[in-house]
Structure formats: C-alpha cells, structure tokens
UniProtKB/TrEMBL annotation:
<dbReference type="InterPro" id="IPR027417">
    <property type="entry name" value="P-loop_NTPase"/>
</dbReference>
<dbReference type="InterPro" id="IPR002109">
    <property type="entry name" value="Glutaredoxin"/>
</dbReference>
<keyword id="KW-0614">Plasmid</keyword>
<protein>
    <recommendedName>
        <fullName>Glutaredoxin domain-containing protein</fullName>
    </recommendedName>
</protein>
<dbReference type="InterPro" id="IPR036249">
    <property type="entry name" value="Thioredoxin-like_sf"/>
</dbReference>
<feature type="domain" description="Glutaredoxin">
    <location>
        <begin position="3"/>
        <end position="53"/>
    </location>
</feature>
<dbReference type="Pfam" id="PF00462">
    <property type="entry name" value="Glutaredoxin"/>
</dbReference>
Length: 282
C-alpha cells in the first residue's frame, strides 16, 4: 500500500495518480494543501514539494514520478463476489445489529459530529471488499484513510481532484453497464453479473464545500459532481453501483433526493428506519 502526498495543480502528482489507477495499485492520497500535519511530516522527511510517495510496507519514500518503484499487485484473482450480500452496520440500543441490504436501497447515515458516521463508513468498505465487492471511499483528510489495507480494489482518497474524477468514473461505468445490458437484451442473452461497487461519501456537505472551494472551476465542478451522484442514485443500483452517504443533515440536494426509498441510520439515535420517516431531518 502506498501513500501519495499531492498538491493541487501539480503535474507530476497527476502523473503518479494516473499510473497507480491504470495499474490498479492500492493507494491512499493525501492533499498537503489541506493537511498541515502532512506538510510537517514531509518537512521532517526532507521534502518541500509534492508528489511524495511512502511505501507503507517497507517505510521507503521518494519524490517525483518513479514508475519502476511501484509494485503492481500479483495477478491473483479476487474472491468471487457475493452478489446478495448484506452489510452489518453495527449494534443498536438493544444490542441488535442493523443490516443494510444495498439491493433494497442506497444508504444515508445522519448524525452529529463524532457520532460514529466515519466508523460505520469504514466498516462498510472493509465488509464490501471482504465479500468481493469494490469500495470507493471519498472522505475528508484523516477519516476514511484509516481503512485497513486490502489486496483487492480498495480506493480511498481525500484528494479533491481525484474525488471528482472517481465520481465521473462511477457515472461513466454506470452508463457502460447499461449499454452492456441493452446489448445482451437485444441478443436475447443474460448479461454477465457485474461486480458490485459501494461508492462511499463521508461527511458529504463538507466534501461538497471542499470541491467548491478547491476545484479549478469551483462551484460549477461541485454542481456537476452532485448531478452525477443524483444520476447514480436514480439508476446505479440496478447495475450494481450503490451509494453510502453520511452527513450531519439533509439540507443539501443529494440528501433530500435520497429521502425516497433509501435506508437511513441516525447515529445520534442509533436506530434504522426508512428515510421517508425522516424526510425533514436536519
């Protein structure tokens, strides 16, 4: 597992990220412009600019784009996906566990600060990967990047440009899968099952504000990303793309839209219900 320290507008940083994605190399991205502790860490390591790569397995680190130093994962097959898996979200007041069935609806996690939302999201990602799903985690610095390293398809990023690219990739993949379904239907064949993906957005309102503040096109890019997420909310589930969104309220457009048919967990109350019962939660 590699940790990549990047900065906005850094050409070599974009090259490193593109290389890791193309070769499906597990990695975590840290945007140093948003993480003063990371800047101090790099300074102590002797670096004053990005990108910097740290090999968490060996402790080695280097500056710039050095493609030969990244070890591609072994060509071992990922575990067969459990297409009907449900995900245990944790215990509730009575000691019983809340189960999320992604096939029955997307997930909305509402709660106050430090009420356990990120803990649930990390658990969702680890469980998803353990049953052969992909988990793409978009969060704030220092939150989702605590997820345990995995051999298969684990993507965790707090980098704004990479987060926006991941959302575009999820939307494009959804359209590609729909096209495959249509082709199979015309041929009167059954399409091959798609590997399920959980797209996790942790502390969504703050994520969206970071996109508006830090993306090159600002609010426009944040609006585009939200519209793509709304499209995934409408159509993604039928082709194996599931949303898990946490936030402190649903005043934002995505949360309000998810108030139809999704499952909600309110971490401050620790109870699970249909979000239609909480459509006016703030």
């Amino acid at each position: 597992m590699y940790t990549i320290y990047t900065s906005p507008g850094c050409g070599p940083c974009m090259t490193v990220k593109a290389h890791l994605r193309a070769h499906k190399i597990p990695h975590t991205l840290v945007d140093v412009s948003q993480d003063p502790a990371a800047v101090e860490k790099l300074r102590k390591m002797g670096y004053s600019s990005a990108p910097v790569t740290v090999d968490e397995a060996t402790g080695e680190h280097w500056h710039g784009y050095l493609p030969d130093r990244y070890a591609s994962p072994a060509p071992e097959a990922a575990p067969a996906a459990d297409m009907q898996a449900t995900i245990d979200l944790g215990p509730v007041e009575a000691g019983e566990h809340v189960l999320w069935d992604p096939h029955q609806g997307h997930l909305l996690i509402i709660g106050d600060r430090d009420s356990g939302k990120s803990v649930i999201q990390r658990g969702i990602m680890e469980t998803a990967v353990s049953v052969g799903w992909q988990a793409w985690g978009l969060g704030l610095p220092g939150e989702l990047d605590k997820v345990e390293d995995h051999r298969y398809a684990q993507v965790v990023t707090a980098d704004v440009s990479d987060q926006l690219e991941r959302i575009r990739a999820a939307s494009e993949l959804m359209r590609e899968r729909y096209h495959l379904v249509e082709v199979a239907s015309l041929a009167q064949e059954c399409p091959e099952p798609f590997q399920p993906i959980v797209l996790v957005l942790d502390d969504y309102a703050h994520l969206r504000q970071r996109w508006a503040d830090l993306a090159p096109a600002g609010e426009h890019e944040a609006d585009v990303a939200e519209n793509l997420l709304l499209g995934i909310h409408r159509l993604g589930r039928s082709v194996g793309i599931h949303l898990s969104v946490s936030c402190r309220g649903i005043a934002h457009h995505l949360g309000q839209t998810m108030a139809a048919g999704s499952t909600v967990v309110h971490t401050s109350l620790w109870r699970s219900s249909l979000v239609t019962e909480m459509a006016h939660a703030r």
